[in-house]
């Protein structure tokens, strides 16, 4: 998959190669359920959910990667689309 699409799931490059409107439709289809399952967005309008989806940035993390560390300031919301994320306390020396 990596050698052909330069991504782990093949979707990112494939989606970029589609016509713009078809790529948007694919993105909406892929992420709408993820967005509306978040409790404070579950009753949002379809237009609002669409705007959220259009502004998503896909990131891939590998096992043992740190997504965020305790004490980091944040200005974004992270959602797990596939896989798991472990929360752990920092090692106390």
From TrEMBL:
Primary localization: membrane
Gene3D superfamilies tied to this protein: Jelly Rolls
GO cellular component: membrane
Gene Ontology MF term list: intracellularly cyclic nucleotide-activated monoatomic cation channel activity; protein-containing complex binding
UniProt keyword annotation of Transport present: yes
Subcellular localization, as worded in the UniProt entry: Membrane
Keyword annotations: Ion channel, Ion transport, Ligand-gated ion channel, Membrane, Transmembrane, Transmembrane helix, Transport
Topology versus the membrane: Multi-pass membrane protein
Sequence ranges assigned to domain Cyclic nucleotide-binding in this UniProt record: 40-87
Transmembrane segments: none
Superkingdom of origin organism: Eukaryota
Listed InterPro entries: CNG_cation_channel, cNMP-bd_CS, cNMP-bd_dom, cNMP-bd_dom_sf, RmlC-like_jellyroll
Family matches, as PANTHER family: CYCLIC NUCLEOTIDE-GATED CATION CHANNEL SUBUNIT A
Protein name: Unnamed protein product
Organism (species): Phytophthora lilii
